[in-house]
Amino acid sequence: MTEQQKLALSDLTYKILERIAIKLDCNQRPEYTVLRETWREYGLPGKPTDTQADALLSGNERLAAAELRQYVE
């Protein structure tokens, strides 16, 4: 993975986690609904897998980055 790809992955991960957190703070909607909306907003294909959903909803940046890596390479 190049430095540019690493930066893109870090940026994407941070933005998605931040967006999910903001949406969850502002609304009383189910976590998975917020996750799917955010997933589509960032143009990611299909639906998040259970593993991706767990990683993103955990708020753990390392886990989330590992699951998003395939979309940056």
Number of strands: 0
Domains, number: 1
- Whole-number radius of gyration? 12 Å
Low-confidence stretches: none
Strand share of the residues? under 5%
What's the mean pLDDT score? 93
Q: Note the quaternary state here.
A: single chain
Q: Strand pairing plus helix content: what structural class?
A: mainly alpha
Order of helices and strands: HHHH
Described by strand count, sense and barrel closure, the largest sheet is:
none
CA-to-CA gap between the ends?
Answer: 7 Å
**Helical coverage, percent range:** over 70%
**How would you describe the shape?**
globular
Treating each run of at least 4 consecutive H or I residues as one helix, how many helices? 4
Structure description:
The chain has 73 residues and is an all-alpha fold. The chain has one domain. The chain is 71% helix and 0% strand. It is built from four helices and no strands. The longest helix has 24 residues, at 3-26. The mean pLDDT is 93.
Please give a handful of descriptors for the protein shown.
mainly alpha, 73 residues, 0% strand, 4 helices
Quick overview:
The chain has 73 residues and is an all-alpha fold. The chain has one domain. The chain has helices spanning 3-26, 31-41, 50-58, 61-68.
Set down the secondary structure blueprint.
Elements: H1 3-26, H2 31-41, H3 50-58, H4 61-68
Helix pairs in contact: 1-2, 1-4, 3-4
